[in-house]
Amino acid sequence: MHHTSKFSRRTTVKAIALATTMLAVSFPAMAQDKPLEGKTVGVTVIGTDHHWDLMAYRGQVDRLKELGAEVIALDAGRNDQTQISQIQTLIAQKPDAIIEQLGNLDVLNPWLQRIRQADIPLFTVDTSTPHAINNTTSDNYSIGAQLALQMVNDMGAEGKVAVFNGFYSVPVCKIRYDQLKYVLESYPNIEVIEPELRDVIPNTVQQAYSDVTDILTQYGADSGLKSVWACWDVPMIGATQAIEAAGRTDVKTYGVDGSPEYVEMVATADSPAGAVVAQQPYEIGQRAADNVAAYLNGEDVTPFTFVPAVLITKDNAAETAKDFLPKKD
Amino acid sequence: MTAVEHAPAAANRGWFNSKIFAKLAIRLGAFAAFAGILIYFALTARGFTSSYNLINVVEQSTILGFLAFAMTVVFIGTGTDVQKGGIDLSIAANAGLCAAVYAVMMREGYGNFVAIPAAVGTGMVIGFFNGLAVVTLKIMPLLGTLAVMNIAAGLELTLTENTVVPVQSDLMNVLAFGRFLGVSTLAWCLIIGSALLIWAIHFSRIGLRLYAVGGHIEAARAAGIRTGAYIYGAYIFSGFMAGVASILIVSRLSSSTPGTGLMLLPILAAALLGTVFSRRFIPTIGGTLLAALFIGFLANGFQLLGISSYWVSGVQGALILLVVTVTSFAKKH
């Protein structure tokens, strides 16, 4: 047992090392061996309690270290006040660059502005703000539209959809939600149930489970309720479980991110999970670090960097889902 | 607790001396540990001693400090024994509710002149409910204030629907980013607030009577102090401080956000930790101020040294355990 797991871990490490070398070769910025040698880079994230957040965070920290940087890695544990204090102290530490990942833009913007006022180059992951030099993210406009269109198709362009909208203050969620609403403008026979649901952190899965259970009670089998949507997929894990528990086959769920548990649900034929747009958070983190390296070595960096995302549906899961399923040692 | 202290003391002088010595050792130990950790940070953490960084830490400790002062006042008025005495578990949730009231009223177009009194008033009403539960209904403080905490948290969710409510006003900018004589507004708030409270609690008649009520309620009642009113007062004051702190929270975060309730643990940590800095291990404003700053310096020093922030809450928890153990040991023996 032990031997196998050790062996597989070593293989994984080798595979990652190989992949990294290949990436390093393909990136002109990486011509120099350790382009961030002697540089200090601060990484501030609101939290790492979800798969996406943790992977993107690790991608940044790992890559920055590979590139030779000294990393000040700060996880605010989902506490806005902690993140603000960490950013404030970080500014005083005068690093050569700062990467900020996710969080509430209303809270962050005045502080991101202070980072720039202190002449520290600011990069963001999944956070569009005028104060950043570059935002590395997925193409959330496309993600929002693709997921909405898939949902419309599955619904036959009519019926009711229950929408979770608790994180409109998080920029990527705003974009995906706005895209959903934009797509639905063309399909007037689809009705968004009011009031909208509120997804929460923490207790995301449990809360979504009980909210969706209530919705299913309120909207019975002949109500026309066909879909449940959220701008990410952790609440959809609870929603899918609630639909299964209620024994309903007329309602499907839709989400974004590619959390392994949810991808597995989409890939399971009889699960109510309809589709998910899976992102590559680890790669997003790595690209953000590469952008810092490029910028600090005098290269031009564009305002945003998109890392491809994949729409996984019930129909294409056989080909698309395999890279995103839970890793089994 | 204070009553037990005096009776057997005269009977056994040697034991009395060793007890005094033990207390002194613990208190000096606490100061030495605080100073030692600061010196360690000063020597090893780059930029720790810069005035900019030190003021940052004071600024970062203001909100925690204000809420911990409120908890301290409740401790003072009701006795520090957490199992028997009073506690205000609702304080963090109350601050969250006040912040929500303030932010929502600002969003609806009421100005600061209406929204700030409304927020502070909300805090005091919640404080009144705590008093009602504990004094009038005689519910155990741990349970009474826990129930009120849930009410406050529920009302906050109802108001904000668990979303971020942004606030923009000139006052917010001055509070969050203003400076006077090189010191930021928030840091001034802590300095002035502490000075006022130290006077009110340790030097005014009301403060001394509050200590009497918390120290020995029967004796205080016999001496003609209206004990119920003082305990009510402590809880309402706690709500008042929650309201004041909520304005500072909103200004620092430019919005009301869910999750203010998470501050309960650091608040308790600061108020309990503060007792080791006092002569008789009782809650004092000065002690709580030191403890709040200590918690702030710990997080700051760890970040400057590159120690994972994950350790901060662990160290906080360990400190609470240590303080409660040491002080209860010192009080009993």
Walk me through the structure:
Chain B: It is found in: Cell membrane. The complex is a heterodimer of chains A (329) and B (333). Chain A has 2 domains: 32-137 and 282-298, Response regulator (Rossmann fold, 3-Layer(aba) Sandwich); 140-278 and 313-324, Rossmann fold, CATH 3.40.50.2300. Chain A is 47% helix and 17% strand. Chain A has helices at residues 2-26, 51-66, 80-93, 105-117, 140-155, 171-185, 204-218, 234-245, 260-267, 281-296, 317-320; strands at 40-45, 70-75, 97-101, 122-125, 134-137, 159-163, 190-192, 225-229, 252-257, 273-278, 304-306, 310-313. The longest helix of chain A has 25 residues, at 2-26. Chain B is mostly helical and 333 residues long. Chain B has a domain at 47-258. Chain B has 14 helices and 4 strands. In chain B, the strands form 2 sheets. Chain B has a two-stranded antiparallel ribbon. Mean pLDDT of chain B is 87; it is low at 1-11. Chains A and B meet through strand 2, helix 3 and helix 4 of A and helix 3, helix 11 and helix 13 of B.
Could you provide a short overview of the structure?
By secondary structure, chain A is of the alpha/beta class. Chain A has helices at residues 2-26, 51-66, 80-93, 105-117, 140-155, 171-185, 204-218, 234-245, 260-267, 281-296, 317-320, and strands spanning 40-45, 70-75, 97-101, 122-125, 134-137, 159-163, 190-192, 225-229, 252-257, 273-278, 304-306, 310-313. In chain A, strand 8 (225-229), helix 8 and strand 9 (252-257) form a beta-alpha-beta unit.
Structure keywords:
heterodimer; A: 329 residues; alpha/beta; Rossmann fold; 6-stranded parallel β-sheet; 6-stranded mixed β-sheet; 11 helices; 12 strands; B: 333 residues; mainly alpha; two-stranded antiparallel ribbon; two-stranded antiparallel sheet; 14 helices; 75% helix; disordered N terminus; membrane (chain B); transmembrane helix (chain B)
